[in-house]
Amino acid sequence: MTGRTAGPRDIHKRHDLCGTSLRGKAFVFPFGRGSTGTPGIFLEAVRNGCAPGAIVNVKSEPMIVACALLAEAFFKVSIPIIDGLEKDPQELLRTGDRVRISGTTGIVEILSHA
To answer: What pTM does this model have?
Structure first.
């Protein structure tokens, strides 16, 4: 089945970051709010070179973890996911901060604040 959608697109325009590129950036958010379709949408971002370089959650849920696993399996793209940090990353990090993230050690290092 092929085709195109017609009419307006359903984009969550209420968020301050709507329209901002996540390409290669650390995507920090508390938890996933999607469904089983989330990994498919995420894989399109990976395929198009628009995926984040890392994901930092307060608590990662299974569909977010599936995103990173499938990116590795299908495209050989490693996207580390960090969660369960001692402090809430949303309280420590702001848009534009520079960070170094190690998926191996689970360390998020703040290099500079925006």
So the answer is: 0.84
